[in-house]
Amino acid sequence: AGSSCVLICPLYSNLILVTWKISLKDGGLCMLSYRPDKDRLNTTNCSDSMNWNFRPPRDPALEIQRVGIVHEGHYTCEVAAKEGNFHKMYNLMVLVPPRLMLYCDEHKNPVCEAAAGKPAAQISWAPEGNCTHKEEGHDNGTVSVLSRFTDYSTGVVNATCFVSHPAGNQSKTIVC
């Protein structure tokens, strides 16, 4: 999320028509097309963040700027050329790294929160001990995970929270 993404479409020397058909996860449809014979670009129902990343006759790539969850969906590039018809498909899934927060609750238990990540993060502790996990889904598709370290038997005052996520791993240590 937040970065740019470029989806590549094959280039053929004898282009007749190039079309990007985009079916977004939220149900929106968008289409971009280019006809070399008329040197015309057409866009239908696409956000300003989706643009051609080429100048004909170079590769007909699609660039999505400031990628967000709203851009998730199926992207298909269709090329009509004298050599035949070709297509390339992408399924765009957006990763949102969670915000890591670590604090002590009112009972002096360490609490680790991986807030608003997509997909949900995994939380583990060092030293290992008893902990409770709770997940909360948000309307925008992100998930917050809260883990409370409750291992009173060890008497440990230092606890390290490890957050594992496809967008990157994080850790923090706290003394409660």
Q: What do you see in this structure?
A:
0% of the residues lie in helices and 54% in strands. The protein is mainly β and 176 residues long. Strand 14 (158-164) and strand 15 (170-175) form a beta hairpin. The protein contains no helices and 15 strands. The strands form four sheets. Strands 4-3-2-7-8 form a five-stranded antiparallel beta sheet, with no helix packed on it. The protein has a four-stranded antiparallel beta sheet with strand order 9-10-13-12, with no helix packed on it. The protein has a three-stranded antiparallel beta sheet with strand order 1-6-5, with no helix packed on it. The model has no long low-confidence stretch (mean pLDDT 90). It folds into two domains: 5-92, Immunoglobulin-like (Sandwich), CATH 2.60.40; 99-175, Immunoglobulins (Immunoglobulin-like). The chain has strands at 5-7, 15-24, 29-35, 40-44, 50-52, 62-64, 73-81, 84-92, 99-104, 110-117, 122-126, 131-137, 143-149, 158-164, 170-175. It is a single-pass membrane protein. Its main location: membrane. It is found in: Membrane. It comes from Ceyx cyanopectus (Indigo-banded kingfisher). GO terms for molecular function: signaling receptor activity.
